[in-house]
Amino acid sequence: MSFRAGQRRRNQRFLNALAWFVLVLIALPAFWIVLTAFRPNVEINSWPPVWVPQEITLDAFATMFGLNPDERMRVPVENYMRNSLLAAGISTAVAVSIGTLAGYAFARFRFRFQTAAFLGIMLSRAIPGVALSLPLFILFNQMRLVNNIFGLAAVYIAMNIPFSTWLMDGFFRQIPQDLSEAAYIDGCGYWSAFWRVELPLALPGFATAAIFAFLAAWNEFQIVSVLARSAAARTFPPGLFDFTEQFTFDWRGMAAMSAIMMVPAVIFVILVQRNLVSGMTFGATKG
Amino acid sequence: MTLQAQVQSGSSAEPEQSFTDGRISARWFPVFMLLPAILFILVVLLFPLIYSLYVSFTPYELLKPNSLKFELARALRNYQRLFADAIFWKSVGNTIVFLFLSINLSYVIALGLSQLLARVTRGQGLMRTLLMVPMMFAPILVGFQFRWFFNANVGLVNNLLFSLGLMQERGQIAWLVDEPLGMFSIIVASIWMNLPVLTIILLAGTLSLPVETFEAADVDGANSWQQFRFITFPLLAPFSYIALTILSLDISRAFDIVRIMTDGGPAHRTELIWTYVTRLAIENTKFGLGSAMSWVTVVLAVAFTLYFFRQLVRSRVVR
Questions:
Q1: What is the pLDDT of residue A85?
Q2: Which of A37, A261, B125, B232 has its C-alpha lying 20 to 30 A from A151's C-alpha?
Q3: Is pLDDT larger for residue A114 or for residue A70?
């Protein structure tokens, strides 16, 4: 008996060690990128490779924000930053609001063509950005919206509506229906039952949907790389692409820019970690 | 009519005012709530998409504005040219290989990892945080990272091989250039990107399974492989399909990775249908031909999503 218990403990210890090994392997690349941003160029490009950092420096970040007198950044990072924040911020606010209204309609009402409407909205999410960017460019070209940040934000609004609708539909379904029924009996109309009773309860869901929408817009590359032709109109993702297409490779500068690009995602993943799983798997077993 | 709609609506209690004071009824309220979403999607997504179908039947080139003209006799020229194009078929073949390997390997690794994580006794919280690290990366960032790691001269992979004594010279293995290493590299990058979402959903599914079933199986003498094969795996089906549906909504993210890692090259070795759209339309400014190509990607994406979504619905019914 004690032999089997010992065997079981050894197995468990092996499982734990294996899990740690795999997860560290998965997370290590990200750590390496951030570390590189703080290392001097000589170390990054040296041969044979230097593994243990000998020196930590903030030079790359100083260069990026124009604080380094010896070196100028070769891409307009301030523009990327402003455009990314504007496009992601505007589109998140509008898309999640619209998605909340739609999600409430799907969660609380039965109406004709409901399944078709839901499927249609979800399928519109599957359209590849590459396919969409082309006609949008032709149309925006005629409407003089190319290089316009609000034109881009409008596209991101439409692209973010489906997922917001889906998430909010799930969050509203988790709220017991008795509450809205009680509100109806107390004399509320449909709108005030939604606005005064159910929306406040769904605010955590609203926040989760906002985070997903913000990140989707912040990370988007396919459409903005076609719709923003000038360097000044670009966001971070096409900016990073332009950076890698420069004549000389500034790996450290690119790593520093990558680290900046990760900041919102790092904050958000820490914030939603708890809700993430439930947000994505509801409806897996409930019809 | 109003009465019928109210009977259909989910709530048993209804706002009484809707009959009397002209407030919006149960019939029109959901329509009103859906209107902004549907309008936005129609105007910004669906209209351009249908417009691109029209463009795909014209010989439109950006530098010749007059070429945006529909002629019935020449309507199918773009599609004929595409289907006669050897590089088009190469990109289709590459895409099939890429999706098949990337999705299957991602799923198998995620399934194994979720079973491992479900049995871990210590530090599960920290492990889940580590697992979410790739989620902090934009697809373009994933591509950049692996472009750098697989770089022949300064990349992490070659540096590591050299330091471990497995490689003698600098830049000996050209990961992003040689065939089939280029394909291998982009598949590795895409698996790394897919893992967190798949694993998290499968882990949540595994943890939600009823404990009694496994206790009963234990009593019946089923070993752990049998328990996985005949209990865990079938019961995970809805979660698997939710994960694969989410994945299929984003298959074109591979474009971002490939565009920055190899840009489909060299000599179209890693050309996928998405990078080929860009090559035809943006680089060669042949918008008509590019639109025809982009419709190939639309059909593929919708077919994928519908397939997994239907499997999802079916697996829920069985349960």
A1: 95
A2: A261
A3: A114
Interface test with B, best of A26, A152, A155, A270 (most B CBs within 10 A): A26
| B52 with A49: Cβ contact below 8 A | no
- Whether the complex's predicted ipTM surpasses the cut of 0.90: no
Was domain A77-281 assigned CATH 1.10.3720.10? yes
Residue B253's contacts (CB-CB under 8 Å, 6 or more residues apart) are B139, B190, B193
The whole-number pLDDT of residue A285 equals 46
* pLDDT score for B245: 85
Residue type (1 letter), A229: R
Per-residue pLDDT, B123: 80
Nearest residue to B112 (alpha-carbon basis) of B10, B29, B22, B199: B199
Inform me whether the C-beta atom of residue A113 falls under 8 Å from chain B C-beta atoms: no
A278: nearest CA partner in chain B: B204
Per domain, the residue ranges of chain A are 2-64, 77-281
Q: Note which residues in 50-89 of chain A have CB less than 8 A from chain B.
A: 51
Q: What is the DSSP letter of B65?
A: G
What domains appear along chain B, each with residue ranges and CATH number?
Answer: 79-318 (1.10.3720.10)
Write the pLDDT tens digit of every residue in B137-166: 999 999 999 999 998 888 888 888 888 888
Residue B199 tokens, joined? 């694993």
> Model confidence over A143-158: pLDDT tens digits?
999 999 999 999 999 9
CB–CB contact B277 A261 (8 Å): no
Please, what is the Cα angle at A148 between A143 and A149, to 5 degrees?
Answer: 140
Task: Using an 8 Å CB-CB cutoff, list chain A residues near B24.
Answer: 189-191
Angstrom distance (rounded) from CA B48 to CA B50: 5
From chain B, the residues in CB contact with A105 under 8 A are 29-31, 33-34
pTM, two decimals, is: 0.87
Cβ B144–A181 below 8 Å, yes or no?
Answer: no
Two tokens at A163?
């997922």
Percent of chain B with pLDDT over 70: 91
- Contact with chain B for residue A218, Cβ under 8 A: yes
CB A97 within 8 A of CB A195: no
Closest chain A residue to B277, measured at CA: A130
